Amino acid sequence: MPDDETQTQTLNRGGAARTPVGPPPPQLSGAAEAPAPWLLRLIAVGLVLAALNLRPAITSLGALLEEVREGLHMSGSVAGVLTSVPPLCFAVFGVMAPRLARRFGAGAVVCAGMVAIAAGLVIRPYIGSTAGFLAASALALMGIAVSNILMPVIVKRWFPDRVGTMTGLYSMALALGTALAAAVTVPLTGAMGGDWQSGLAVWAGLAALAVLPWIVLVRDRTPAPGQAAPARSGAASGPSASVSGRAAGASGQASASGPAEAPAFRITRSRTAWGLACFFGLQATAAYITMGWMPQIFRDAGVSAGTAGVLLAVTMAMGVPLAFVIPRVAARLKQQGPIVVVLGLCGLIGYGGLYLAPAAGAWAWALLLGVANCAFPLALTMIGMRTRTGAGVVRLSAFAQSTGYLLSIPGPLLVGVLYQHSGGWGLPIALMAGLMIPQMVAGVLAGRDRTIEDEC
Fold first, then answer.
1. How high does pLDDT run on average in the chain?
2. How many Cβ atoms sit within 10 Å of the Cβ of residue 456?
3. Residue 245: inside a domain, yes or no?
């Protein structure tokens, strides 16, 4: 897109004329000259490989959860703890990512994250105890947490004129990796003699492959936190070259005077911030319950293990096309409440189908729940639209995601407890459906046309 690149570069060179603050900022280290094309291609490959590894640790386990429970003699409650580990790790370790990136560089942290994922995935099946399995899973999820947070930073650092394109690319790769692990883990396990340990460990190879491109960036020390996202709906829609140019200019200013100044307000006073945090947390609850338990629901209804994995893959694969469509539609609307309601209704119908006829309508329920799970890209889009400043985006993103992941921790655990003590899926599915109501309410509140700066 040469025209977009030209427009962005013009905005960057003229950024000081459009900004009332001081002289033109110096370029970021490593950005004084255009990076070599081979380096950008290598980083793009690294982004795709990293994104492919951000969910297989979770969905591969969901596909083989019954075998893991039997092999490690887990109860339903302990399995519920296992499915609650991902949001816990995302909440705890995700907040460490900006600090680690400031000290070691974003590329080095992502490289270390891929190493942690590979190590955790290869260790956990063979450690031989439930506690060890949980600890090794936490190691892999720690790598996922920090890498997940820093993907947008890498995009803004190296592709300031292609933010929308590159964000879409790694979002698609993330959804693809999620679906791929769900679909092929069971067949791979069968091809390796039915050994669930090998079926889980095989995904460490993909993570090890992802380490290689990031070795080049281990010495890059560009300060990550200064690269704040642009404000308002432009941050969400992405493809606009002018928005990308403003983002690059903001990054330059941040590097000149330190991290972007935070707005002088307490974000906890904003109803929109709390609504967005609750919406993010409830959609994360639904997503991790789905990834951890949906294959087991279908298997208990008489669906084969292989088909149950494919059904989960279908649910996850819905995020590939909709991750492109939903943010663009949301960015054109002043209020995102109608989209929230549509996604919530799809979830309610899907859960109702799981309750009444889990096997007979399995494919329809998988598709509907896949649509409902696309509340995640909508939440990310609203983070950009509910602020006016780059620093506001950073603060709202950190608040909504960290608070949201904390709120999502009890959900998968509670499903496991209800499943064990009720002896069936009636109560757990009723809980999942019931949580869609407050999710819609919180989403409508977060989707109103206002900013957290104005509210505070």
1. 80
2. 17
3. yes
d(CA 318, CA 138): 27
Residue 251 included in any domain: yes
Single-letter residue type at 92: V
Angle at which helix 76-94 crosses helix 56-63, to 10 degrees, equals 180
- Give me the CATH number covering residue 234: 1.20.1250.20
Enter the pTM of the model.
0.68
What's the average model confidence in pLDDT over 106-116? 94
Owning domain of residue 197: 37-455
* Amino acid at residue number 368: L
pLDDT reading at 216 higher than 50 = yes
d(C-alpha 91, C-alpha 408), whole Å: 9
CA angle 159, 231, 378 (to 5 degrees): 85
Q: What is the largest CA-CA distance in the chain?
A: 68
Across the range 249-253, mean pLDDT stands at 37
Name the residue with higher pLDDT: 271 or 160: 271
When pLDDT is cut at 50, 70 and 90, the band that residue 18 belongs to is very low
Overall number of domains in the chain: 1
**Number of C-beta neighbours around residue 197 at 10 A:** 18
Residue type, 143: G
Residue 106's nearest CA partner among 148, 134, 69, 142 is 148
What pLDDT, on the 0 to 100 scale, is given for residue 16? 39
Residue range 57-101, pLDDT digits in tens? 998 998 898 899 889 988 877 877 787 788 888 888 877 887 888
Contact residues for 36 (Cβ-Cβ < 8 A; gap 6+): none
443 within domain boundaries: yes
Instruction: Return the higher-pLDDT residue of 316 and 248.
Output: 316
Q: How far apart are CA 93 and CA 144, in angstroms?
A: 9
Determine, yes or no, domain membership for 406: yes
DSSP assignments along 265-330, one per residue: S-GGG-HHHHHHHHHHHHHHHHHHHHHHHHHHHHHHTT--HHHHHHHHHHHHHTHHHHHHHHHHHH
C-beta of residue 157 within 8 angstroms of C-beta of residue 224: yes
